[in-house]
Amino acid sequence: MKKPILQTFPLSTPWQTLDPFLFSVYHLDLFPKGNGEMGPDESLLKGRNLGSDFDPSQKWRMYHGQTIPGFPSHPHCGFETITIVNRGFCDHSDSLGAAGRFGQGDVQWMTAGRGVQHSEMFPLLKDDEENTLELFQIWLNLPKAGKFVDPHFKMLWNEDIPMVKEENARIKVVAGTYKNVASIDPAPDSWAANIENEVAVWNIHTDANSEYVLPKANSLVNRVLYFYEGSEIHIGDKKINPNFGIVLDPSEEVSIKTGSETAHFMLLQGKPIGEPVAKYGPFVMNTQAEIQKVMEEYRLTQFGGWPWPHPDNVHDKNRGCFALYPDGKLVEK
Predict the structure, then answer these.
(1) Tell me, what CATH number does 11's domain have?
(2) Model pTM?
(3) Does the residue 258 lie in any domain?
(4) Which of 19, 54, 171, 181 is the most buried (most CB within 10 A)?
């Protein structure tokens, strides 16, 4: 009998990924109370490096925000971002004129394609209690044929995303199909849009002191299970501690026995694109020559410019979750 585990590795920041994924990061920030203006009600002068994306010595990080946490306007090209906000809120603005506020389980799917700028800010909306932020951002590559598609912005509201409830587990199906339960359609030009690519993004939560069986895939895909929170788990005779990634044999079911705490996993799976990858920061192409061309395009056009008043644009504090699409369509949650 084959062993289901091909490899394990400690989770660093960002997480190690396999084709067709390029990048995945998990943010857990225990932000303090808000100051009434969506920033932290604490001093930023106590040795806090505002430009440090991932500082493990801090319980919360401003990243590149100066007054409100987050990532002010920056470009992307040649891939897609999938942003899952389990706790807290994210304010999105982009060069297409799209905008939104989402959180508490919502997901934003953005195809950068031929180029887009966007900002991702994390407003601290609560002034009477702490503002915990928990989110994942996953970069899914586009094949050469899709590198220059039109940018696309899509919001997946939490209440619309399938949640499969089993005896000992709950599986949030952000992308792909789990035991005949299909996700909301991804962006139209996504590698995930073709079911034959068997792309899956599943956030899995299993009960303490229980057993959960992860079903096998239908084809030979890359499959990585990220164990990001809980006590130890056992797969066969192997004990695995939290903050480890597990590369799995997709042709095998995987029985996972959990320890004394609820175990939380992110599963990323998909058929490899199998093309050369050339990267320079937020630009992903197939060759360095293409990277140079894209960088020149950005210098000349700024991917359409920035239509918002500030690079760290945020929305009205009292506004609920919403999505404003590039064609002017407004959806209030």
Answers:
(1) 2.60.120.10
(2) 0.96
(3) yes
(4) 171
